[in-house]
Amino acid sequence: MPLLRNSRPNILVIGDLMIDHYLWGRAERISPEAPVQVVDVANETTVLGGAGNVINNLTALGASVSVASAIGDDANGKELTLMLKSIGVKTEGLVTQPGRKTSKKSRVIAANQQILRYDKESKDAITEASESKILAAVEKDLFLYDIIILSDYGKGVLTPALAQGVITRARAGGKKVLVDPKGRNYTKYRGAHLLTPNKKEAIEATGIEIKDDESLKAALLWLKSECGLDRSMITLSEDGIAIFDEKLKRFPTVAQEVYDVTGAGDTVIASIAFGLSSGLSIDDAARFANLAAGVVVGKIGSATVTLDEIEEYEAMLHQSSSDAHIKSFEEIDRIVNRCRAGGKRIVFTNGCFDILHVGHVKYLQVAKSFGDILIVGLNSDASVRALKGPSRPVNSEDDRAYILAALESVDYVVKFGDDTPYELIKMLCPDVLVKGGDYEGKAVVGTEFAGELKLVDFVEGKSTTKTIARIQEGTTC
C-alpha cells in the first residue's frame, strides 16, 4: 500500500461516457391508475457512469485522468463535461458530435432496491470525423500516459477503427492498453495488453463453457491467442480473478455482503490499471483489484473505492501484514472518522503489553466484543520505563506493536509516548473505553471523552511481571 499511496499515474480512459441518474425514495402504496408501485422521491443524485465510472474509480484511487470520447451537443453532454471537469479530469480529448444523444440512465431506488430504469442515449457508431478527432487527441498526448483503458459499453464510441487505431499507436509508443470488452466479437481489441471480461462474457466470446480449471484455462488460452494479448484475464465474480500469461493463476476473493454489483467490472479494470502503472506486478495488481471489488459490492449503485477503504477492508479480512495495522496519531484519526461515519462502534484500550501472554489475548478478545473496531494504545519504550522501571520493557515498542497487530481481535495499534493515553483518548472519543478489572473504584484517564467504560477481569495468575519472575527463577508454569 505505501507504493500505491505515493503514486499518481497518468491514465487515459477512452469509451462510452454516460450519466447515472438516481431517484431515491420510498414505495409504500400502489397506484390507483395502474398496478404499479408509487415511489415518493426524497432526493436525486447524478454520478458519472459507463466509462465515467472507471474514471471515478481512478480519481478516487489518486490517479491523474484524461478522457477521450464522443458526446452529444445537448444538455446532458454539457452536464457530463462539467462533471468531469469538477473532479479534475482532463477533457481535451472529448469530442462533441452534432445530433448525438449523450447517454443518461435514470434508476428509481426504493428500500435499497432498484425497481425501474429508463434510458436516453444514442447507440449508433460515432462518425469517422469523430474517430479521427479522438485519434488525433490520443496521438498528440500519448507520451504523457502511463497506461490506456478502453471501456466499451457498446454505445458506439469504440468502433473497430477507433479501437485498433488506439491499440496500434499505443503499442508503437510502448504503452499498455487494458480493455473492458463488450459483445461477442473481440477482434477489434486485437493487440491489447489484456482484456477483463467476466465469466459470462468470456463464455459468449470464446464459445467455451467454463465449468472447471481445464475449461477456464482453455478460454484464457483462446483469448490470448485469438486476440494477440500479452496475457489474458477473466473475472469470476465471488471466485476472484483468473490470469494466464505463462500458466494459469487464480486469485480468490473474500466478499463481504453483496448489495449491488453495478460497476464492479469498472472498479476491477481501474484497480488493475492503477496497480500496474504504479509498479505492481500483475499478480499483486489482481489481488489489489479483488480487494477493491470487495469494497464496492457492499455499496449501492455505481460505486468507487479509495485506498483508505481498501486498507480498512484488507485489515478486516486480516489479509494484510501487521505493519498495515500500526498507525500514527494522524492516520488513526482519519480512520476513526471514516469508521464512525460508517456507523462503526469504536473501542479503545491501552497498555504496555510487554511479554504477550494468554491473559492479554483473552482481555483483548473481550474488549473487541464491545464494538466493531478495537484500537490499542501502546506505551512507548520511554513510557514503559517511566512506569515500570529501567529494566523494562523486555521487548521494544516496535516488536510489541507488531505482535499486537497480528492478533485477530486487534484492528489497529497506536504508540504513544506520554505516561497516559489521555491525548489519544481525547482525540479518538471512543464509544467504549476498556480497562482491567483492577481499576474498579479508581479514576480512569480519559473517561470524560468516552461513551462508556467497561472493566474486564484479568486471567488469574497471568501477568508479564510473573512471567519475568518465573524466567529469572528458572521455573515453569
TrEMBL record:
It catalyses: D-glycero-beta-D-manno-heptose 7-phosphate + ATP = D-glycero-beta-D-manno-heptose 1,7-bisphosphate + ADP + H(+); D-glycero-beta-D-manno-heptose 1-phosphate + ATP + H(+) = ADP-D-glycero-beta-D-manno-heptose + diphosphate. Its EC number is 2.7.1.167, 2.7.7.70. Keywords: ATP-binding, Carbohydrate metabolism, Kinase, Multifunctional enzyme, Nucleotide-binding, Nucleotidyltransferase, Transferase. It comes from the Bacteria. Residues 1-320 are annotated as: Ribokinase. In the C-terminal section; belongs to the cytidylyltransferase family. In the N-terminal section; belongs to the carbohydrate kinase PfkB family. Residues 10-304 form the Carbohydrate kinase PfkB domain. Residues 348-477 are annotated as: Cytidylyltransferase. Homodimer. This is Bifunctional protein HldE. ATP binds at residues 198-201. Pathway: Nucleotide-sugar biosynthesis; ADP-L-glycero-beta-D-manno-heptose biosynthesis; ADP-L-glycero-beta-D-manno-heptose from D-glycero-beta-D-manno-heptose 7-phosphate: step 1/4; Nucleotide-sugar biosynthesis; ADP-L-glycero-beta-D-manno-heptose biosynthesis; ADP-L-glycero-beta-D-manno-heptose from D-glycero-beta-D-manno-heptose 7-phosphate: step 3/4. PANTHER family: BIFUNCTIONAL PROTEIN HLDE (PTHR46969:SF1). One of its GO terms (molecular function) is kinase activity. The active site is at 266. Residues 348-460 form the Cytidyltransferase-like domain. Catalyzes the ADP transfer from ATP to D-glycero-beta-D-manno-heptose 1-phosphate, yielding ADP-D-glycero-beta-D-manno-heptose.
